Fold this protein.
Amino acid sequence: MDLNRRQFFKVLTGLTALALTSKQGFSYKGKFATLIDLTKCDGCKDESIPRCVKACREENKHRFPEPKKPIMPYWPRKTYEDWSDKRDKIDTLTPYNWLFIQKVEIDGQQIYIPRRCMHCDTPPCVKGCPFGALSQQPEGNTVIDHSICFGGAKCRDVCPWHIPQRQAGVGIYLKLMPKFAGGGVMYKCDLCDARIKRGEEPACVVACRERLREKAVYKFGPREEIYAEARKRIKEEGLYLYGDTQNGGTATLYLSAIPFEKIEAKLKEMKARFQMPLKVRNIYKEEINPFGKMILSAGVLGALTGIAGAVLEKKENEEEVK
Ligand code: SF4
Ligand code: SF4
Ligand code: SF4
């Protein structure tokens, strides 16, 4: 009898997980968050490409840049950023790879960290962009409007994790000031904005669950619920939390059995391209604006926006669509 009950619950759990792997719809309106449980991620060692990374690339490939070549550097720079010949690169963030699995070995233990935009509560990238190309959505995610991004990379400069990645030879700067401004278009995870707006979970979240079922690494849901679950688990399981205080709070929480101080120290030692600093000040929350002098005057900005709007009207839907 006892065995039967156990079997019954096993089947029930399996069926629940199966139901969850299908394209789930939700009607919740409000801010979302993602919980990323590092105790569960094995980096998809048995796969040629991690499932979540593959799903992200598949979901977003229609928005990947198609640069016009030859690419010209713009004044006064002598170089430009071109990832178009490295589209297959999956071990770092690029304009063609908005999520990657960072590998860190600590005390003989391998840790796999899915890295993507943190979707900050007070996003410096949104406030720092002089062209207003970034916005924070009602769902709490930050999105780059590729059609008005000049690729000046201010968003990356002010991002504590340097997440947005630039591709040259594409974007509105080519039409307006090809030799004097911008330098491409910036790309990053937008939390699958289109999907969550139509009530579907992000592609990476679904893909991981298809593989790991109830042991999935990602959990996506209403922000309050995700925060509550993370806090409960650190209390009950003695885990460590990252993302709740950094940069004034974010919509991406990491849980780890290893203290984040150790992870931060290891990433520093490795000189990793993407770090996980524990102390992250939010310059805008503290009302210090380092770009005060650099932001274009309202007049210039207005004129540029007007020109951009006119060009965009003609070129609508042509931009960066394969
Ligand atoms: S998060 Fe999930 S899908 Fe992604 S690498 Fe880890 S186990 Fe694989
Ligand atoms: S992580 Fe960086 S790119 Fe993402 S919202 Fe925060 S500041 Fe912006
Ligand atoms: S939320 Fe969407 S865009 Fe962001 S990493 Fe996941 S699949 Fe990619």
